[in-house]
Amino acid sequence: MRKTPQHQCALLFLLLESAVFFAPGCVSPNPPHPYSQYSATAIESAFTSEGKHSHLSSEILQRFVKDGQLYLTLDNCIHVALARNFNIRLANEALIQAEADIVQARAAMLPFIGAEASYSHLDEELGFGSMTFMDRDIYKAGLVVRQPVFTGGRLGAARKAARYSRDARVQDKQTVEGEIIFQVRRTYRTAQVAEAFQKVATEAVALLETHEHDAGILVREGAVPELDLLRTRTELANARKELNAAENALDLALSALKNLLVIDLGIPVYLTEHLGRPLRPTDNLDTLTAMAISHRSELSSLRYQVTAAEQGLKAAKGEYLPTIALEGRHEYMQGDYRDLDGGEHWTIGIGAQFPIWNWDQTSAKVGKARSLLSQARLQLRKTEDGIRLEVRQAFLNQGKAEKNITVAEAALKTATEAFRQARARYQAGEGTNTDVLDARTALSRAEANHAQALFEYNVALAALQRAVGTTNIEKEIPERKALAK
Q1: CB 72 within 8 A of CB 64
Q2: In 76, 159, 205, 327, which residue has its Cα 20 to 30 A from 135's Cα atom?
Q3: What is the pLDDT of residues 185-202, one digit of tens each?
Q4: Range of the domain at 339
Q5: CA distance linking residue 306 with residue 465, whole number of Å
Q6: Is the pLDDT of residue 154 over 80?
Q7: What is the 3-state secondary structure (H, E, C) of 346-378?
Q8: What's the pLDDT score for residue 471?
Q9: 323-334 and 269-271 as β-strands: parallel, antiparallel, unpaired?
């Protein structure tokens, strides 16, 4: 079955739907959006309404506002998303929590300083004969200092584990940033191809309107039957329907992009770049795979998690050993046998606690810690294998997409020339109306296929960059930029 422009629009709707759920330079020639009359004040208020975003992230958006409209390049979108996207802000919160864990682990190794106070009332004084050892009312208040001396390495291991866990969270944040960058690239490209499809549909309507005019002249002159004019008008009505669908798809694509950037869906956004053909990596598959294994933040995070689990196992084993702590007190007491009239006293001592039997609680902790370590190591190996497969798939998809562009460009040139000749022959009375309409359909299909090929190439390149673990913004080939214009 031939892939008509209607099928292209259906494919675009599927891409947009996935972009919304997984939320994917010359000035755009598109006509203004229905909401293009927004004022700059309305846009600014939408940025900061209801305290949704910080002052800093709102300032980032306002850099790209011009005449009440928001003009964004791909680089701009990535910059905005990294500052405003909710997933990145959630990753920042996880990092704050990891830093707090380090503080807690460190605090456990430092001296405890606290205050104590107590009051006791006895039913009678304690004494012997005329000698009183303890009054009925006993008061105590003072300061206590307690310093762990030996804990079997538990506290030190816990502190190291907290640090490695924090380092893992740092890598996790980089993973989230890389995923957001990929999603922005894919969604921006989806909006670009939607814009290209709208342009194809607009041109199709314009061509059919011109052909309707030519057919009307020939019908009035009796050169062609009226059926040609009726069929042309039918095709024109279908083309206008496709244009409506393309405009709706563009609006949905831009909405998906705004969702990723955490921008109010009512704010008008214009893309300042067209689909182009960025430079592809020249490295071979083996080199790219090696780069992925060394660069991917997921693997760095898992390596830190393995090290943290090793420290966790060490801390669990430390509970088999005794705990020794040094303690000092400075107290005021009254009514106690040491000072009935009240006075200050100090004490210093050392204590030890050794577990003899705790119903296998310690062995259970050690077993769990050992299992967590094995789980982390297995997850590391599994992720490495998955990344190797991801790089291979992305590399092959990028190569296939590049070949498709060459085929699509050749088909577009052929279809353009075929339509020109079919129209010229019809105007000269040598061709048929069917030839013109078929050539027009073939031209629209070739234009849509060319835009689709560029889209797939750009998304494949972004997927390859994500698979390798690089986030460099691609630079377009100069001659391709000229062709896009």
Answers
A1: yes
A2: 327
A3: 999 999 999 999 999 999
A4: 5-484
A5: 26
A6: yes
A7: EEEEEEEECCCCCCCHHHHHHHHHHHHHHHHHH
A8: 63
A9: unpaired
What's the CATH code of the domain at 234?
Answer: 1.20.1600.10
pLDDT of 480 over the 70 cut: no
Q: Which of 398, 405, 401 is nearest to 466 (CA)?
A: 398
Task: Please state, in angstroms and rounded to a whole number, the distance separating the CA atoms of residues 27 and 30.
Answer: 9
Smallest CA-to-CA distance from 136 within 148, 146, 127 is with 127
Distances (CA, A) of 164 to 169, 304, 305, 310: 9, 5, 7, 10
Q: How confident is the model at residue 479 (pLDDT cuts 50, 70, 90)?
A: very low
Span 341-362, pLDDT tens digits: 778 889 999 999 988 988 999 9
| Angle, alpha carbons 366-371-377 (nearest 5°) | 130
In one-letter notation, the amino acid at residue 370 is R
pLDDT for res 45: 52
The answer to pTM > 0.85 is no
DSSP state of 129: T
363, 321 Cβ separation under 8 angstroms:
no
Instruction: Give the three-class secondary structure for 118.
Output: strand
Please work out, in degrees rounded to the nearest 5, the angle formed at the alpha carbon of residue 247 by the alpha carbons of 241 and 249.
105
**Phi/psi of residue 31, nearest 5 degrees:** -65, 160
Specify burial of residue 485 (Cβ count, 10 A radius: 0-12, 13-18, 19+): exposed
**Burial degree of 305 (CB within 10 A; 0-12, 13-18, 19+):** buried
Of 273, 293, 199, 278, which Cα lies nearest the Cα of 243?
199
Count of CB atoms situated within 10 Å of the CB of 474: 17
Percent of the chain with pLDDT over 70: 84
Nearest-Å Rg of the Cα atoms of the chain is: 36
Overall domain count for the chain = 1
Given the DSSP bridges, would you call strands 269-271 and 69-72 parallel, antiparallel or unpaired?
A: parallel
Let me know if 409 is exposed, middle or buried by CB neighbors in 10 A (0-12, 13-18, 19+).
middle
Side chain identity at 293, as an amino acid letter?
I
Cβ partners under 8 Å of residue 24, min gap 6? 15, 18, 182, 183, 184, 185, 186, 187, 188, 189, 190, 256, 260, 459
* Measured distance CA(198)–CA(154) in Å, rounded: 65
Higher pLDDT, residue 162 or 35:
162
Q: Are strands 126-128 and 269-271 parallel, antiparallel or unpaired?
A: unpaired
Beta bridge partners of 72: 271
In the block, tokens 């259970």 appear at 364
Interatomic CA distance for residues 171 and 176, integer angstroms: 9
d(CA 211, CA 165): 68
The sheet carrying 112-121 orders its strands as 112-121, 137-150, 323-334, 343-353
The total of other beta-carbon atoms located within 10 Å of residue 359's CB is: 7
CA distances from 178 to 15, 172, 183, 322, 371 (A): 20, 10, 9, 47, 30
